[in-house]
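Notes to self, Isoprenyl transferase:
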Amino acid sequence: MRFPGVVYAFYERKLRRSLSPDRIPEHIGVMVDGNRRWAKLAGAPTADGHQAGADKILEFLGWCQELGVRRVTLYMLSTDNLNRNPDELDPLLDIIGNTLDRLGEKGDLRVNAVGALDILPANLAEKLNALGASTSGADGLHVNVAIGYGGRREIVDAVKELLHDAAAHGKSIEEITGELCDTQISEYLYTRGQPDPELVIRTSGEQRLSGFLMWQSAYSEFYFCEALWPDFRRVDFLRALRDYANRQRRFGS
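result:
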């Protein structure tokens, strides 16, 4: 019975050795999808699927640290998710809060909130703000947690903030529109000051963005994996990195 495990470990090591450090993406976006389906297939409560997904997040971040990834953006809760039945949403919010505590306890992660905090429950928004402040000096893996996040909402918020700032400096509409460019909008996104993701991974077999990093992923490479997020293995991650390394990035050409 041990033979398959030995073969699997050998294959994983072979994959790892095939990856050149200079082809590891600096910033990876991950859509952690499939927790509910995982629970349904297991005949377990939905909350068990969300908890299994949360545990996988901690494991995944460890892989990223081992491989030299510098930045990860995790799509944990969309604006649409906030409309779910309270019987599912409330336990999910508790699991997310507990996961944030666990991220803070790591000590070497810099955690940054990416989303519209004003639409979140006050206690969760406060926890995100506190975690961002307490980990701001960490020099390890930078983790963006996309909670209460929607790509369209982000772009609208960015444009609103840009217009407010311009108006505060006494600029007219004509001046604003005359100067407006994509670089300016990037400076007002939730991820302002950060490089765009080179690679975006989505689990569960779905092949769509669902509003995730719509602006930032314009030139990202995409990798879609059949595994549900709680079942996502280190070897699946290594395959995604190998696929990325073998691509020729054309940046729209």
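- The chain has nine helices and six strands.
- The CA atoms of residues 152 and 211 lie 7 Å apart.
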